[in-house]
Amino acid sequence: MIFTSYTNIISPLGFSTSENYQAVLDSKVGVKKIILPFATEAFCVGKIEDEQLSQRFAPLGNIDFYTKLEQLSILSIQDVIDQSGIDTSDERTLLIYSTTKGNIDILSFDSAQDGKKRIDPKRVYLSELTKQIQLYFKFAHTPVVLSNACISGILAIIMAQRFIEQGIYDNVLVSGGDILSEFTISGFKSFNALSSEPSKPFDANRVGINLGEAVSTILITNKKELAIPYNTQVVSGASANDANHISGPSRTGDGLFQSLQNLQLKNKDEVGFISAHGTATPFNDEMESIAFERAGLTKIPVNSLKGYYGHTLGAAGVLETVLSLESLKNQQLIKSEGYETKGVSGNITMIEKHQSKSFLSFIKTASGFGGCNAAALFRKI
Prior knowledge:
381 residues, alpha/beta, Peroxisomal Thiolase, Chain A, domain 1, 2 domains, six-stranded mixed sheet, five-stranded mixed sheet, 16 strands, globular
């Protein structure tokens, strides 16, 4: 068996998994309407306060040397290492890092700006980002970088499971992170996809995406003694690319449908919920609803966590898996924040309020640009 182990989430809702889970149960929303330093208009985004991050990171390292994403990643990974006690220098341990844009904010740094002149422009490359993390923790192996649009996080967990199944590693730390930047904001703005109001996934009145920043880390392992936090296994994972369009999802949900079909799902009745991608854009939500119906999952409750965090890009699949593990551990369904009125044609059952439920497993899905899709099944042992 391949187990999920210790976790961490750093987001606008807290610097630990427990803080984030409690905030979500309290229906706190981490996005708010602000004007970012590089923007001219207000959008609803989930932003981690720089001052709070600096205070947290100062005991660990030089805040002037590390970028914001590197600081967040080191904090998150360190928390999981402290909880689990794993040895990062062990040849049987690997780090997989999932991100869409990494240190993209370096491109906007003024070379004469105080505190930024020590940042090497080469750190904009994803390999250089993870090199800094490797050096900090003294990982024995070069980290694997996974950057496959918005399925990066869940795909990294699937890769970790496969590495361990193949006997290559015993422990794989999966960390996913992205931050708000001029590049990502302007990119989504060019699609007219950004919302100035909190997002409403799958709702008839949804008006677009909220972007958010976060880093989340999870340890995947074959060590049963490290499975204690959740006593849950990664049963299976699958991905498929329908190559529909560079930015538009398939109208028939082909890629996601294939991913769901390839899961080793023997008993649909034991699945408590599906943690959907749920970006609150008309085409994504519609596609997902069609794929769920085609896969015969219409009776399984669905939520999207992006109403709480916004879309955290490379962190999303990891963060949403971690919160789903908390949901499974506590036998609690998390409501899909922002949802009120069904706004998709597929026959799906949305979770409209927090509620207790006895269940054994859950499914996490993700979809992204270029037609990529992924799904994973997690089950109590």
